[in-house]
Amino acid sequence: MGRGGVSAKDVAKAAGVSRAAVSRAFTPGASISAETRKKVMKAADTLGYQVNHLARGLIRSETGIVALIAAELATPYRSALLAALSERLQEAGKVAMLINSDRSDDSVERALRQAISYRTDAAVVLSGMPKTELTETCLKNGMRLVLINRDEYREGSYLIRLDDRAAGRTAFATLAAAGCRRLALATSQAGTPSLSARRDGFRDAAAAAGVEIVEEATGPTSYETGLSIGTRLMSQTDRPDGVFCTTDLLALGVMDAARHRFGVRIPEDLSVIGFDDVPQASWESYDLTTFSQPVGEIADACVDWLTGDAMSGDPLQTSIPVQLAWRGSVRKNQPF
Amino acid sequence: MGRGGVSAKDVAKAAGVSRAAVSRAFTPGASISAETRKKVMKAADTLGYQVNHLARGLIRSETGIVALIAAELATPYRSALLAALSERLQEAGKVAMLINSDRSDDSVERALRQAISYRTDAAVVLSGMPKTELTETCLKNGMRLVLINRDEYREGSYLIRLDDRAAGRTAFATLAAAGCRRLALATSQAGTPSLSARRDGFRDAAAAAGVEIVEEATGPTSYETGLSIGTRLMSQTDRPDGVFCTTDLLALGVMDAARHRFGVRIPEDLSVIGFDDVPQASWESYDLTTFSQPVGEIADACVDWLTGDAMSGDPLQTSIPVQLAWRGSVRKNQPF
DNA sequence: CTGAAAGCGCTTACAG
DNA sequence: CTGAAAGCGCTTACAG
């Protein structure tokens, strides 16, 4: 046994077979007799042998590693998606490499290069958008690429999208139907494709209905931003009585500002709709009506495609439906 | 260029040097002339060459991969720690492999085996406790082991602990000093070392003060459990007026149950102390007084040890101090 | 079904 | 400083 631990050679010697035999014993479907396999497995067990995936990955075209590239890992929604993804990946026999792309602007690119270095089977991009040039390099390296909620398309990659725009429209319709008269939209300055689409859907519907809306957009996508937006909104002389927030974190902040700083009642004085359905949205202090992002379905779609045969005729895009989770932050329309 | 992408051979040919030279160009401190290195780098750049870490890992004793083994990835505290860890690891030039150990009881062991398969430089265990036998195998394979907040010790591994027990005692003292008379302890049935230590500290202090306390312990460590514990606590004829929850999630649930289901005022009627200082604890709806887990410091200690020289004389254990974050959920003692 | 041999992409003594 | 050669641990045609 060398410094690298137990190797196939050790097992081969112990089992009295060739190195090739032990390799075959660990390869499902390889041509090996049941008896030989049994001998090998026994020796492997006593020696504590584990196939070296590094060496295997060097030969085979797959390493079993999938890179997960994301920013703001600790955010409720992001961490839920990451958890679902890593779990599904494991069930499929893969392993997740987590790459934080928080830092600089080029960090998605750096992350992708990192993935190439380890010859990951695939990269799943949750944040940011790599340059076409680089994604082509990935594809050329035999790597699969999944883009979750990105707006641009990249030849050969798989796109998973939610209908954010439709949700924005639904938010408007819901608030209008609840009898809200002065509508507001709260979003951050992050400018991600998802947030923009939600905003645009809301705007579109408002324009179509000939309704003027107030818009607030500042800072990062956080609770604190929601707090300051809520404060600004409630400080207006003509306070809005309905607000769509492009994210739950924002909505929760808006609610807290309205309630605790202005004594505004929800939903009596103000109706609020969020997006994501993070766990906190259903907590009793909030009871927020929001669009639920089906994290499990997204993860399933992703892993299915990654482990599937990916026939070239297959569609390279999937749309996951979002649903409005009705709770108590939107008032019921008064019956006349 | 083979199927595996651009290799050192391709770069060597393009730069007119040997394969060894390109290897040296990518090895800091290797004996190579500045001129040769420049030629290699240029060729590598145009060809888009990335050192294959799989192959490199096969030769060198390090792969640059660190396995992060944890359960309940999407929980606020856990995801914050994971985010800090992955960020620090990246800054140190390492990369994180995320292994979810949610599933079965043996999943920590499976995770460790997975880590061995990929010859990770180290494994950081955040949840569960692997058998001694297996940790020895890891160590024998040259893998370093970090255990965060585990109670048992494993020869050769590095332990990072918080003084949970002291925090439990402080919680008691704080509640007592606030003038609370009927004290309760709320915890889950998870039975992790950290939770038990916090509970024991609280119990000890109460016993030392000759004070009887009410204890509630059920379910998983979640907001929902907090809700049901809060409900049970407030349903008692002699309601407690001070409660220490071993986790913020539990505390938040207790607060919501008390306020929304029983109209109990916090802190006037009930003082609450949590543990973790998750982001939600400081949200305006809660303003929870809690012990802050210094996630950044934990991550720093972990990565420092992993990347350090680990002289055999070094202490293999570090205690990170926890601090009480004073907020509004504990009443100020009435001046006499 | 089985083993000897070649090769994946890299690094590292070994000579020069 | 530089290149030819050996070797890391594995898999996979190739014969038998």
TrEMBL record, chains A, B:
GO MF annotations in UniProt: DNA binding
Organism this protein belongs to: Psychromarinibacter halotolerans
Domain HTH lacI-type: residue ranges: 6-60
Lineage: Bacteria, Pseudomonadati, Pseudomonadota, Alphaproteobacteria, Rhodobacterales
Pfam annotation, one family: LacI
Protein name listed in UniProt: LacI family DNA-binding transcriptional regulator
Keywords of the record: DNA-binding, Repressor, Transcription, Transcription regulation
Gene3D superfamilies hit by this protein: 3.40.50.2300, lambda repressor-like DNA-binding domains
InterPro entries hit by this protein: HTH_LacI (IPR000843), LacI/GalR-like_sensor (IPR046335), Lambda_DNA-bd_dom_sf (IPR010982), Peripla_BP_I (IPR028082)
Keyword DNA-binding part of the UniProt annotation: yes
Record PANTHER family: LACI-RELATED TRANSCRIPTIONAL REPRESSOR, RIBOSE OPERON REPRESSOR
